[in-house]
Amino acid sequence: MADEGSFRKEWLRPFFFYGNNWISLLGGAITTASAMVLVGFWIVSIFGHGGSSNPYLGIIFELILPGVFVAGLVTILIGILTRRSYLVATDQVPSFFPEISIHDPIFRHGLDFVVIATLINFVIVGTACYRGVAYMDTVSFCGTTCHVMLPENTAYHISSHAGVACTQCHVAPGTAGYIHAKVNGTKQLLEVVFHNYPAPIMAANKLPAASTTCLGCHDPASSIGDKLRISSAYADDEANSPTSSLTMLHVGGKDSFGRLSGIHGAHMGKIEYISTDSSNQTISWVGKTESDGSLTEFTSGDPKAAATGQRRTMDCIDCHNTVGHAFTTPEDALNKDMALGSPAVTLPFVHKEGLALLKENYGSPELAQAKITAKLITFYRSQYPAVWNSQQSQVNAAAKTLVKIYNSNIFPDMKVGWGTHPNNIGHTNSPGCFRCHDGSHNAGNAKTITNDCSACHNLLVSGELHPKLLSDLGLQ
Ligand code: HEC
Ligand code: HEC
Ligand code: HEC
Ligand code: HEC
Ligand code: HEC
């Protein structure tokens, strides 16, 4: 190996010669500085300290800095080319300069240097691309970088899928799904930058087919059978009188003999539908492909008009549209939290007052927090001073729960309020199953999509105080 002097002279001379201009020097400084910070960040994150919860740090380290690094390299090249063309044009290329020939040893060494530098750059840029791409798939990037995702991100973190990445439901596996997602993502990013995004955001018909996402984790052939649903409700009286309902849902599925049963089994064949609105809430035509291949068409209203429009094949998402991030109703949310202990049932009229406070408009999360808390405290102070004196901590806890319910369901900036994103399971708060099972979707042969309560569930107990069945089952 030659000594350092001849290495510089022989290997690097052309680069230092042409690179000796302020553009390339600036590029060199940018490249070196960003490479050092990047590699430092990667080393730190290998030891587990790189993952910051701040999404903007992620954007800087995973997306912007690699871009700066590449821009630095390009700047060096621009400087070299500019200086070379200037020197060639003014005939100033020195006589000692190596020929551009593979037989010239200095040129060959220069080429070796380029190859080594390129390899190093490939490693850095490759690592950066890999990390950047992986970063764009994280929940932190999808959910928190853009404030427009705040409603879904908030609901997601308290859902049963909080451990499933957004992309596992929203992006089809494989290259095509990936490219589709990135093209869409870029479009959405521009919409956010130019404040040109829709509010509220709706996604009906935009998700990949459930067969490519949900079925990666859920086996549709597993039979769930019957599922007992117990729900509690509280009345608007002074005692917040509690009642329970017990419903046996016939979820069914496919059993080990391949027999289909219940709710899941009934929709496992091919069912298509046409809706007349963008969130698939009004369904005018339903087509069921029978086992012999014939099509039974159920229509609501004028059969000819009902059958025109875009057909969609029903899958898991048409019922489970809120699995990733469910918004609820003020009644359901309050009943559920009261059953868990807060707001405490010992506070007179807390159900009635709480519900009224949840249904008001406050304009922002901060105002909601301030006003809900102040109004609830004022109510007990003025109407029930004795309760306020003895149960101050319960009143404060109740206010805290109400604020939590409100701020995880109402997002004024994104125009998300009660009922903006209806849940298609059930039929009590939004049309849900009754979009088709309302008793008015008929086939020509007088067949109707069933509206028989017992096809889907048996209402074992409906709103009773201490139902005997609960204690018989050992649940109370
Ligand atoms: C378990 C699957 C799943 C996960 C995980 C998931 N989503 Fe969704 N998402 C859905 C489904 C299903 C829809 C509704 C599609 C439809 O209406 O047809 C949806 C709809 C949306 C919508 C449209 C508005 C709405 O609420 O219907 C947004 C925005 C959204 N998701 C963002 C996210 C973000 C951000 C994350 C991660 C923080 C995420 N999702 C995680 C399944 C999921
Ligand atoms: C990466 C794996 C994964 C994917 C993808 C996934 N799930 Fe799940 N899902 C789970 C796990 C794990 C649970 C159990 C969570 C628990 O028990 O708390 C679950 C629970 C559920 C439940 C019962 C709890 C609830 O919230 O009602 C339903 C329904 C469900 N998933 C439907 C879906 C649908 C529909 C999709 C596609 C849009 C989907 N899942 C995609 C893993 C997944
Ligand atoms: C026709 C509507 C409908 C379709 C389509 C549907 N489901 Fe369900 N599913 C239900 C209902 C209703 C329940 C019970 C609701 C509840 O638990 O509150 C349920 C329950 C579940 C559960 C939870 C069971 C439990 O033990 O809590 C899972 C998991 C599930 N479905 C997955 C799927 C998957 C995966 C698909 C697609 C292959 C699918 N479902 C298609 C209506 C549907
Ligand atoms: C897009 C329309 C559509 C939606 C939405 C829908 N279904 Fe169905 N459902 C059908 C069709 C079509 C049939 C088959 C009717 C037939 O063959 O007579 C069916 C059949 C059934 C059956 C079998 C009925 C029987 O008598 O054998 C059950 C149970 C059922 N659905 C439950 C549900 C539940 C629960 C929901 C909501 C979570 C739901 N369906 C949502 C279209 C729908
Ligand atoms: C196509 C299927 C289907 C039909 C038909 C149907 N329901 Fe339901 N119903 C459901 C499902 C699914 C749920 C559960 C929703 C959930 O899990 O949140 C439900 C929930 C309910 C609830 C709330 C139970 C609770 O625990 O909060 C009541 C009440 C109810 N149904 C009454 C009826 C009555 C009365 C009829 C007959 C006129 C009927 N339903 C017909 C599917 C159906």
UniProtKB/TrEMBL annotation:
<dbReference type="Pfam" id="PF03264">
    <property type="entry name" value="Cytochrom_NNT"/>
</dbReference>
<feature type="transmembrane region" description="Helical">
    <location>
        <begin position="113"/>
        <end position="133"/>
    </location>
</feature>
<dbReference type="InterPro" id="IPR038266">
    <property type="entry name" value="NapC/NirT_cytc_sf"/>
</dbReference>
<dbReference type="GO" id="GO:0009055">
    <property type="term" value="F:electron transfer activity"/>
</dbReference>
<dbReference type="GO" id="GO:0009061">
    <property type="term" value="P:anaerobic respiration"/>
</dbReference>
<dbReference type="InterPro" id="IPR051174">
    <property type="entry name" value="Cytochrome_c-type_ET"/>
</dbReference>
<feature type="domain" description="NapC/NirT cytochrome c N-terminal">
    <location>
        <begin position="114"/>
        <end position="197"/>
    </location>
</feature>
<keyword id="KW-0812">Transmembrane</keyword>
<dbReference type="GO" id="GO:0046872">
    <property type="term" value="F:metal ion binding"/>
</dbReference>
<dbReference type="InterPro" id="IPR036280">
    <property type="entry name" value="Multihaem_cyt_sf"/>
</dbReference>
<dbReference type="GO" id="GO:0005886">
    <property type="term" value="C:plasma membrane"/>
</dbReference>
<keyword id="KW-0479">Metal-binding</keyword>
<keyword id="KW-0349">Heme</keyword>
<keyword id="KW-1003">Cell membrane</keyword>
<keyword id="KW-0249">Electron transport</keyword>
<feature type="transmembrane region" description="Helical">
    <location>
        <begin position="56"/>
        <end position="81"/>
    </location>
</feature>
<keyword id="KW-0813">Transport</keyword>
<comment type="similarity">
    <text>Belongs to the NapC/NirT/NrfH family.</text>
</comment>
<keyword id="KW-1133">Transmembrane helix</keyword>
<protein>
    <submittedName>
        <fullName>Nitrate/TMAO reductase-like tetraheme cytochrome c subunit</fullName>
    </submittedName>
</protein>
<dbReference type="InterPro" id="IPR005126">
    <property type="entry name" value="NapC/NirT_cyt_c_N"/>
</dbReference>
<keyword id="KW-0472">Membrane</keyword>
<keyword id="KW-0408">Iron</keyword>
<feature type="transmembrane region" description="Helical">
    <location>
        <begin position="21"/>
        <end position="44"/>
    </location>
</feature>
